[in-house]
Amino acid sequence: MLGPHYVIDAVAHPFDFSPENVRRDDVAQSFVSGLWQKHLLLSGGGAHTLTKEEFFSRFPAEAMAAALFEESPVDMAILHALPDLGFFVGPLSDIEQLAALRDRYPGRFLLYGTVQPYDLGAALESLTEQVRRYRIDGLKVYPASYYDGRTIGWRMDDPEIAYPLFRRAAELGLKNIAVHKALPLGRTRVHPFRVEDVEGAAIDFPGLNFHVVHAGAAFVEDTALLLARFPNVYANLEVTFSYLLAYPRVFAEAVGLLLREAPDRVVFGDGCTLVHPRPALEAFAAFEMPDDLVRGRGFPEVTPALRGKVLAGNIARAHGLDIRDLSTRTETAYAPPWHALRAGPR
What is the residue-wise DSSP string for 278-297? Predict the structure, then answer.
């Protein structure tokens, strides 16, 4: 809990940045180096910042769970499985590991599976198997990857690739589709990471919720326009939420615009283990929208009710959850940052 507010972290994933999993080519090395720089910028500093050796490892899932539930106010989190994206030997965040973690913490995690839809037949088969084997609660997709020196991308409004995938998801009982947008991956071309293609998916699949992950990091006005027009589009603030620590004015201008258009569909996410959850959450507890943005641009004041929506209420509603029925942390004090990682295996 963050004061009186339940907290659901809408994006959590223990990365595998170990040297064995990162491809040896310059493109992959540059990509992970960029993520390291982002961690240094957005982590909050001090003990919340990982060492380079800690960051470039196969991060233990249990150490991530400890960061969420023992070291921060997070009550529940959504695990995102991640593919190799063209930069890694294997998955960046392995679904089998995540499913096992979910099962060890009943009531504390939801799980999103992932597929790469370029081979649609294999993607549909994999999605069906993930629902059967891992009981996933949603789907995480990436609009582009980088293989053999070129961007391989697809669009959310493509009737030949995206729509069969979304139909299968709906048939399997999934309602929430999260798509990585706004932050291009390394040297991939920027166009697949724009947001205009979400429009077609939102129109043609009104029964699905489409979560724009990294909302507000770029294409802010386009994202706000989507939120204003489509009640099934959500803004997931992974990375953007941590701007509170590095760029508080940028956070206020970007997130304020999203909140003005859709206060019921903006959700907290931080991407743990890219950053530790606690510093930005504590900054958000004290955050107030600047007066000039409230008066001059009509941005909402951050009331307790709005804070509660962003921290948990909006994502809980997307998944049909009643916060009153969910597990909460019982600790009265936080453990030191990354203590389970730094203590070694339990």
Answer: HHHHHHHHH----HHHHHHH
Q: Please report, for the domain that includes residue 142, its CATH number.
A: 3.20.20.140
DSSP output for 1-42: -BTTB--EEEEE---B--TTTB-SSHHHHHHHHHHHHHHHHH
Question: 273 in a domain, yes or no?
Answer: yes
346 within a domain of the structure (yes/no): no
121 and 134 in contact (C-beta within 8 Å)?
no
- pLDDT digit string (tens) for 21-75? 999 999 899 999 999 999 999 999 999 999 999 999 999 999 999 999 999 999 9
Q: Each residue of 73-109: pLDDT tens digit? A: 999 999 999 999 989 999 999 999 999 999 999 999 9
Task: Specify the number of domains making up the chain.
Answer: 1
344 falls within a domain:
no
Q: Is-contact 255 267, C-beta < 8 A?
A: no
Which residues form the domain of 195?
Answer: 8-322+329-339
